[in-house]
């Protein structure tokens, strides 16, 4: 079988790598992604391994790259993906990358530090200039005539003191000026008033332009304060309070001339600093341009380099310490590619001795490798969510490609809803290479996108089952003429005007010639959508259909178990497990399917009134009795049913005791040296013609056990019997419960149809209130509400419900008949497509 139907053959192999070429060989293997390396030093800590120094050097470079990326983010630059996937750097290239990255990081630190210093100095100069300007207005302008005296001017332009009063003052007035954060103004003012009441006059005014806050980086409007006071002690208090509130205090010249000179000097300094800052910004932009060009490639190279050394840390050295030995799980079909990769790596490193690969035997269960593509990946993910297939076990995924969408469509059957789902999935499929769809950050959207082919098939199958049910947004479509003739019934009956007036519902009798002209060509006849017994008819049809499909689905799962028994050479299970399981299922529930089809074929509309009940017959079958009021379907029905029940019950002890007794007899024959029985069911070793014990981790007991024995884990008879007893009880009870579980197909299909009909009746039909212009205007919002509710309830909610029920039917009712799912995936060492992620 191919890889999709069964996992590929995987072998354990050893790689012999020369020390000089080991790095290049592992790099080449990482580019191809063929092998899964095993750790040969599990008890050695990460800090004691051979290449821990190289790993630390890679981590130091990653820290440098993180700093560079943070600087780019602070500068508003976006670091794009690596244009091409570079190979892992050699030792000389790695040193060059480390040197250049550290040099760029040092330049960025110095330039950023200088820029921050220049910005801070420029901000202080501008604040000082605004403070002097505002102080000039406070202390130099004359007060307007007739203005009332103000002890404190808050955010105003009037001078604090009248200049004419200075000559009458005996004491000198001093000033404290600066800027303060606007959030601290009220508390600062209250504390000043309480600490220095009567000895100061404080004025506050907002700065004309906003400036950056050095603590947060936000642009805020600072508040300028000017405080006049008398006495040196008061001045010390004011300065201490200003320091507590983190105010920026500036010196304030006493004379107006010195203030003008200071302002002139500030103007020139600001201009000079602006020129220097602009040049610094340009140089910083040049350095950042270099980082943007080089950093994506460097990150990918260092990530690959680190991954290679982590793999080399898992290898062990030989006694001469000139050769590294690695153990890998490798697909058998890729061994030639592995050897070619080793040859390429040896050639690139310049080594004169080629590295090579050698298969070795092992008793461990290899990992599971199932190759998928973009179409099968979604279905394989559904199976793997239940459990990864055991090594070379039958894979349910290729069968789920058909059965899963079909079972979903049975519960979701509607032409309109299926078409919407199909078109949505088709849009994702057609634009699957679009970066905007692939690189979306929404996890729910990515889930839909990864399962686009699954949704596509679910929509297509829903369209098919919708034609079977003859439902399109809950309305029937007349593709073919109806097989029922109302005119013929009217001609052969006494339907008078008075009869039609008193009977709103009329009965069509198929026994009247010409009323029923035969089966509808495809699906259900549209006339059933007008019938009052429409729901009763669909319930009977869908319930029996669910039982039939469920038993066929479970039987197919049991049949797939044959491939496992044959492949693993457990042929005794064909007789002792598969045969009694099929007998039990077919003798009871296969017979129920036979009764359903037999009743459909034998009884027609003419004798439908005397048709017996299948349910009563099935109950009487288990009670070994017959019901006189329920006529038999065929002659000799009771003895046949009795024989089938006895046959089903007789298969239970075979299923319960067959395998344990066989294994017990086989073990006893091995102990007594019986070669005939010992050879039965033996599993071939993984390798032939090679000496055992070549594995570094293989023990003597592993080698002597001789490969994969299918029954090696069941060493105790009691354990074997308990395992088989649990399997028997689970299977016998599961046949009953699983058959009933498939009735969810009927229930979900009925619920979907009824919800669709309710939505049409209560919403859409209200839009057809009239054929006037008003009716057309009303139809627009009604249709919008109908569309939103259809997508939200019937497509999303009902679709998710049907998906979960179909998932349960595959996991529990189908896969447990043959699928163990106790394996683990092969995780090959491969470099990620974008190592920066």
Helix residue percentage? 55-70%
Strand runs, count: 11
Largest sheet entry:
5 strands, antiparallel
C-alpha-based Rg, rounded: 43 Å
Low-confidence stretches: 143-161, 165-169, 675-714
Structural class: alpha+beta
Specify the overall morphology.
flat
Mean pLDDT comes to 85
How many distinct helices?
Answer: 24
Give the N-to-C terminal Cα separation. Answer: 37 Å
Proportion of strand residues: 5-15%
Describe this structure in words.
The protein is of the alpha+beta class. It has helices spanning 22-32, 52-74, 91-140, 185-195, 232-244, 256-312, 335-349, 377-386, 397-411, 415-430, 435-438, 443-450, 452-469, 486-491, 497-502, 534-567, 572-602, 614-623, 637-671, 675-678, 700-705, 717-741, 744-762, 773-814; strands at residues 10-18, 36-38, 174-180, 200-206, 211-212, 219-220, 223-229, 248-250, 316-317, 323-331, 356-360. The strands form 3 sheets. Strands 1, 2, 9, 10 and 11 form a 5-stranded antiparallel beta sheet that branches. A 4-stranded antiparallel beta sheet has the order 4-7-3-8, sandwiched between helices. The protein has a two-stranded antiparallel ribbon with strand order 5-6. Helix 16 packs antiparallel against helix 23 (744-762). The longest helix has 57 residues, at 256-312.
């Amino acid at each position: 079988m191919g890889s999709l139907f069964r996992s590929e053959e995987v072998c354990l192999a050893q790689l012999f790598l020369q020390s000089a070429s080991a790095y290049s060989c592992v790099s080449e293997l990482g580019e191809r992604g063929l092998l899964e390396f095993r750790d040969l030093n599990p008890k050695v800590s990460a800090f004691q391994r051979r290449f821990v120094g190289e790993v630390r050097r890679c981590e130091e470079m990653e820290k440098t790259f993180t700093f560079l990326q943070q600087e780019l983010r602070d500068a508003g630059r976006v670091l794009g993906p690596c244009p091409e996937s570079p190979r892992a750097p050699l030792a000389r290239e790695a040193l060059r990358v480390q040197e250049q990255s550290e040099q760029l990081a040092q330049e960025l630190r110095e330039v950023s530090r200088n820029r921050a210093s220049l910005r801070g100095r420029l901000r202080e100069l501008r604040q000082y200039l605004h403070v002097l300007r505002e102080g000039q207005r406070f202390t130099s302008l004359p007060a307007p005539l007739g203005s009332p005296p103000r002890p404190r001017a808050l955010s105003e332009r009037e001078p604090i003191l009248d200049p004419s009063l200075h000559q009458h003052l005996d004491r000198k007035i001093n000033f404290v000026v600066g800027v303060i954060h606007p959030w601290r103004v009220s508390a600062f003012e209250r504390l000043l008033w309480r600490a220095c009441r009567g000895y100061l006059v404080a004025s506050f005014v907002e700065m004309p332009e906003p400036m950056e806050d050095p603590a947060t980086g936000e642009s805020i409007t600072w508040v300028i304060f000017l405080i006049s006071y008398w006495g040196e002690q008061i001045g010390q208090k004011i300065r201490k309070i200003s320091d507590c509130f983190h105010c920026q205090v500036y010196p304030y010249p006493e004379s107006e001339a010195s203030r003008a000179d200071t302002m002139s000097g500030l103007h020139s300094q600001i201009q000079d600093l602006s020129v220097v800052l602009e040049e610094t910004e340009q140089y910083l932009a040049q350095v950042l341009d270099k980082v943007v060009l080089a950093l994506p490639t460097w990150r990918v190279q260092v990530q690959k380099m680190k991954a290679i050394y982590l793999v080399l840390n898992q290898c062990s050295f030989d006694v001469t310490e000139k050769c590294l030995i690695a153990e890998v799980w490798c697909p058998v079909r890729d061994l030639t590619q592995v050897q070619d990769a080793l040859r390429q790596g040896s050639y690139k490193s310049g080594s004169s001795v080629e590295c090579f690969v050698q298969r070795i035997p092992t008793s461990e269960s290899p990992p599971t490798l199932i190759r998928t593509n973009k179409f099968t990946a979604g279905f394989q993910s559904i199976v793997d969510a239940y459990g990864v297939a055991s090594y070379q076990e039958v894979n349910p995924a290729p069968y789920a490609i058909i059965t899963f969408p079909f079972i979903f469509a049975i519960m979701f059957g509607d032409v309109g809803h299926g078409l919407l789902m199909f078109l949505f999935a088709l849009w994702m499929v057609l634009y699957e290479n679009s970066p905007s769809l692939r690189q979306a950050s929404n996890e729910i959207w990515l889930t839909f996108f990864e399962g686009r082919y699954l949704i596509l098939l679910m929509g297509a199958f829903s369209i098919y089952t919708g034609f079977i049910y003859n439902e399109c947004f809950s309305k029937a479509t007349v593709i073919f003429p109806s097989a029922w003739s109302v005119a013929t019934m009217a001609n052969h009956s006494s339907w008078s005007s008075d009869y039609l007036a008193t009977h709103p519902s009329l009965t069509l009798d198929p026994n009247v010639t010409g009323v029923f002209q035969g089966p509808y060509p495809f699906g259900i006849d549209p006339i059933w959508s007008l019938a009052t017994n429409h729901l009763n008819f669909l319930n009977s049809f869908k319930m029996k259909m669910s039982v039939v499909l469920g038993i066929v689905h479970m039987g197919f799962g049991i049949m797939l178990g044959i491939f496992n028994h044959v492949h693993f050479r457990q042929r005794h299970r064909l007789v002792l497990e598969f045969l009694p399981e099929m007998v039990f299922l077919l003798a009871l529930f296969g017979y129920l399917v036979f009764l359903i089809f037999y009743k459909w074929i034998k009884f027609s509309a003419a004798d439908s009134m005397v048709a017996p009940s299948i349910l009563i017959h099935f109950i009487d079958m288990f009670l070994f009795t017959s019901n006189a009021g329920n006529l038999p379907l065929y002659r000799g029905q009771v003895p046949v049913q009795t024989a089938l029940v006895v046959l089903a019950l007789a298969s239970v002890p075979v299923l319960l005791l067959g395998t344990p007794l066989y294994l017990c007899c086989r073990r006893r024959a091995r102990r007594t040296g019986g070669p005939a029985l010992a050879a039965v069911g033996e599993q071939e070793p993984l390798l032939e013609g090679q000496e055992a014990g070549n594995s570094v981790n293989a023990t003597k007991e592993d080698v002597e056990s001789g490969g994969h024995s299918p029954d090696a884990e069941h060493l105790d008879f009691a354990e074997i019997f308990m395992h088989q007893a649990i399997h028997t009880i689970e299977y016998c009870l599961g046949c009953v419960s699983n058959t009933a579980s498939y009735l969810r197909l009927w229930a979900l299909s009925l619920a979907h149809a009824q919800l669709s009909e309710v939505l049409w009746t209560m919403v859409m039909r209200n839009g057809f209130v009239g054929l006037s212009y008003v009716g057309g205007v009303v139809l627009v919002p009604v249709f919008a509400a109908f569309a939103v509710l259809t997508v939200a309830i019937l497509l999303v909610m009902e679709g998710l419900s049907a998906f979960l029920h179909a998932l349960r039917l595959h996991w529990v009712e189908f896969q447990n008949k043959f699928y163990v799912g106790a394996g683990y995936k092969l995780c090959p060492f491969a470099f990620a497509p974008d190592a920066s992620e």
